[in-house]
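The authors assume throughout that readers already know how a fold can be written as discrete tokens. The format is easy to grasp once an entry is in front of the reader. For illustration, here is how one protein appears when written out as sequence plus structure tokens:
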Amino acid sequence: MALMLGGYGLRTVLRGQLNRNGGVDSTTVDLQSLPSLDVVVAARDEEGVVTRLVERLTSLRYPPDRLSTWVIDDGSQDRTPQLLDELAERHPGLHVIHRERDAGGGKSGALNTALSQLSGEWLLVLDADAQLQDDLLERLVPYALDGGWSAVQLRKAVIDADCNWLTRAQAMEMALDAVIQTGRLAGGGVAELRGNGQLIKRTELERSGGFNEDTVTDDLDLSFRLLSQGALVGLLWDPPVQEEAVPGLSALWKQRQRWAEGGLQRFFDYWPTLTSAELSLRQRWDLACFFLLQYGLPVVSFADLGTSLISRSTPTYWPLSIVAFSVSGLAYWRGCRGRSEGPAIPRPGIWNTLVAIAYLGHWFVVIPWVTLRMALLPKRLVWAKTTHGPSQQPAGA
């Protein structure tokens, strides 16, 4: 098992295609050929960032007659509704939708509310703390069209990486994730959406049933529903979508529990499709190995370590854990070195890499805990937002 998963991980990381030139030069794009596009944001209690968000969105370069901006006030109880109404008066291209707080469905419900009113051929879904370069749309949309993608996920870059060791580790984790995603694609596998910075073709989204309101991770769920329709997701390294990291351990614990629950639930919900001949052999192999590394290994390692402590014996599955952390270290090295647009990625020096690898150990606690909870307790849908606050201006703006 260690040899199999180690070989898969090594090939995936080394295959990663890190296009650090942005794929498309915005100066060569024929603006008249670009399709219509809706930029959509679901915001709840975001008074600290909503003004900055709208100012950034209204500065994006794209043909004005083909671009619409939508912000859904998802039952905010702070000054977000008032701020959005004031911003809409100053920016005619901004459309604001107000939703009751108990309307249900979480972020997916808010996005579905807007979906029925959109008319663009594509939509770009962002979080409220997203920050973008002015030329992003002029480079992202042609990249999706030229590659024949049904959806494209932007690499996520952390703005406040220099805040503390935790935000620095998260910045490196985002680079690691992008390396693995591109490597999976290069090997004929599957890439996934990540919520913030996801461009989706509207017809494919509607064919997949819109956003699932019965999940806590709409992005991961949608990735599998698109896959079942034969719609492929690509990833763009540069330019990235810039966002804030979680600043403390308590908030990180809540966020990662939600991610783990949604990630596991999608495998349970779509397992018949994922193992059927509807997918290619390479896609099924990729999904199987990814599932074992991401979800199976932490559960086995946690149980193995607990048993060894009780019996005072050597852990049996230590080769698997070494494989996982070694592949992660290589992915850090590939993703964090060299040039990248947006906020600087922490350099993969010995100390930074060791801290980042140790930081990944939290998954070996989160995954087993969430697995146990899901096995024993009824399914629950608790969508907990990540708190955002004013941050520095985006690099490369």
